[in-house]
Amino acid sequence: EARYRQRYVDLIINPESKRNFEIRSKFVAYLRRYLDSLGFMEVETPVLSPIAGGANARPFITHHNTLDIDMYMRIATELHLKRLIVGGMERVYEVGRIFRNEGMDTKHNPEFTTCELYQAFTNLDGMMDILEGILTGAAKEILGTYQVTWMGHQVDLTPSWKRVTMADAVKNVTGADFMACIGDADRGVELARSVGVDMDGVPHTWGNALYETFDQKVEETLIQPTFITMYPVEVSPLAKRKPEDPAFTERFEYFICATEYGNAFSELNDPIDQKARFERQVEAKRREEPNTRAEVDYDFVTALEYGMAPTGGLGFGVDRLVMLLTDSASIRDVLLFPTMKPIEQ
Hints:
With 345 residues, the protein is α+β, with helices and mostly antiparallel strands. It is built from eleven helices and 14 strands. The protein has helices at 2-5, 7-13, 15-37, 78-86, 124-143, 166-174, 185-194, 206-218, 271-288, 298-306, 318-326, and strands at residues 41-42, 48-49, 61-64, 69-73, 91-99, 111-120, 147-150, 153-156, 162-165, 226-232, 241-242, 245-256, 259-266, 311-317. α9 (271-288) packs antiparallel against α10.
């Protein structure tokens, strides 16, 4: 704890600590260089906003005295970046600080750094290729190898990572075949419970049953880099539905050492569908938390009405990737000045 509170002393005494932050700096520099080489443009979007949108998280609230309105520290950069796609900027990204007023543990800090990028006229496969290129290229350039160790696990980052649908991953691990009862909420919930999944407090839909089974039973088994695709629409409010199977969305997350490192979509660009999903999401949030300040971002819906090209989007936590590259057990080991409890507590 003293190392985190007095980082200046830690850097003087512990060369491995200084090395962590050198690797972090090199990773961010490589990330920018890689995306720039693909024709992406780095942009900056607001940290303060009148609406907290783009993710399902509790925001920090502040007050603007001149306008006499409450404002929110951003919980994601997504909706502003997609407005730029609407405006004709076809490849944009932002590396920036995000603020979420939630718990603290070895993988979470109230403020952290993400990279979000959006590209017009591409899809999920294009986003997987970019993400894989970022991490494998950075490992090779900075560490000189695709083989890394994290918390005792030997991880092979060699390109051509495994890609598997959520339903197949669940079936492979638990034997539960959710595709045999697709769309049937009662059978889905029963199937989830039959393999020991706790569905208490979870909306009883087929998609939520599949997702909870994956979350509770499968995620912990994903040690080597794995892309999980085809997420249920119920848990993907910003992703485009698969045209051939509207129960699913064109979304992936990728996992290493039983940890989710990033999230990507073929972005939803239908304003009618987007408006309906936003409203359902806010309604559910208000049922869960009657005093929530969640609102629908109707201006973003208006932006989609002007027309957004088919777009691929990707977001990931910079801090977690640096943890992987430095074999760090805690996010505090890769943040120069992490948030700490007051000493008197």
